[in-house]
Structure formats: structure tokens, C-alpha cells
Amino acid sequence: MNILVGVCGGIAAYKAADLCSQLVKKGHRVRVVMTRGAPHFVGPITFEALTDHPVMLQALATGHSPDGASAIEHISWAKWADLAIVAPLTASTLGKLACGIADDALTTVLMALPVSKPCLLAPAMNTAMWDAPVVQRNLRWLAELERYTFVEPVSKRLACGDIGVGGLAEVSDMVDAIESTVAGHAPQP
């Protein structure tokens, strides 16, 4: 199966590397799309080594960008994917998805992802951010679309020292969610 992993700029991005590794070990082909902030936490070379595929850092480039993205590569990547997961999903990218904003590589690819292809979202953020009314509204808006499946954040000690909901789900839980989704979307005989 072709799995597109979206990585946003948050401290939990390190878990995306483990997610990619686990998916490859299970025989999936994995490609990674990163937001502008994500490489501040985990470099693209890590994902390239784990997946044996280039990482998309830009979209809608004219000609070819330094990372090799063409002006229409976001379309071909969206068509390539059988399933997408964004882990971690930050409040910023959550807001962009809820409002239909496609202004970076990840949101552009996700907007081009055919609606027949499952898209999982695994939020991770500080508890106060998670509880913010606008974040909760954005979660409701996305849930109302019946387009996205959420892999809920967990309650734990967060990187900032706070304890509460907002931690990225465990990698095993994300893999289980992917496998469950795949089983639910298997072609009918």
C-alpha cells in the first residue's frame, strides 16, 4: 500500500520517523510531505533514509525547486497515495485544513487527495491549545465533513512540562488505525 505521511512542525515530529519505519517494515511504500516548520524538529534526510523516497518540502514551484518538486507534483503524490496520515497535526495545519487553505506542500497535497482515499489526522499540541475554542471548532468542522478519521491525542506529560491531553498518539496506535482503515476500505469481492 502507498502511504503518504504528513509531518508538521511540532516536537512530536520525532514519532513520525518511527511511524515511517514501522510502516516500511510492514511492507508499505511510504512518502513524506513536510510543512515549513517540520525540518526544525526532524530533518528530511531522516525520512529519506527510512522510506527510500525523496521528501516533499515545497509545492507549486515554477520549474523544479531545489528539492525536485515540479509545479504539479502535489497532484501526482496525491494520486500515488492509497491513504494519508498527518502525524503530528499541529493547530496551525488543523486550522488550514478546516478553512480550506492550501499554502504549503502538505496542505496542497491533502487538498488534491481524492475524497475516495482515507486521510487520518493525529493531532499533537499543548493542552491549552487543544482546549482552545477555535481548535475545538476546527475539529468539529473537519468531523462534519466526514472526510477525516482522527487518531485522538493522549493525556500525558507534554514537552512543555504540562500534563494533559495533547500528546501524539503512540506509534502502535497510529499503525493500528491505519490497518483498521485499510481493512475498512478493502475492495469488495
What does this structure look like?
With 189 residues, this protein is of the alpha/beta class. Helices cover 41% and strands 19% of the residues. It contains eight helices and seven strands, in the order βαβααβααβααβββα. It has a five-stranded parallel β-sheet, sandwiched between helices. A hairpin with a 5-residue loop joins β6 (154-157) and β7 (163-167). The chain is globular and about 35 Å long. The model is unreliable at 62-67 (pLDDT under 50).
Q: Which descriptors would you attach to this protein?
A:
alpha/beta, 5-stranded parallel β-sheet, Rossmann fold
Spatial strand sequence of the major β-sheet: 2-1-3-4-5
Count the helices. How many?
8
Number of domains: 1
Largest sheet: 5 strands, parallel
Integer-rounded radius of gyration: 16 Å
User: The CATH topology is what?
Assistant: Rossmann fold
Question: How do you describe this structure in short?
Answer:
The chain is α/β, with parallel strands linked by helices. The chain contains eight helices and seven strands. The chain has a single domain (2-183), classed as Flavin prenyltransferase-like (Rossmann fold).
Topology, please?
Blueprint: E1 2-7, H1 13-25, E2 29-34, H2 44-51, H3 73-80, E3 83-89, H4 91-99, H5 105-112, E4 119-123, H6 127-131, H7 133-144, E5 148-150, E6 154-157, E7 163-167, H8 171-184
Parallel strand pairs: 1-2, 1-3, 3-4, 4-5
Antiparallel strand pairs: 6-7
Helix pairs in contact: 1-2, 1-8, 3-5, 4-7
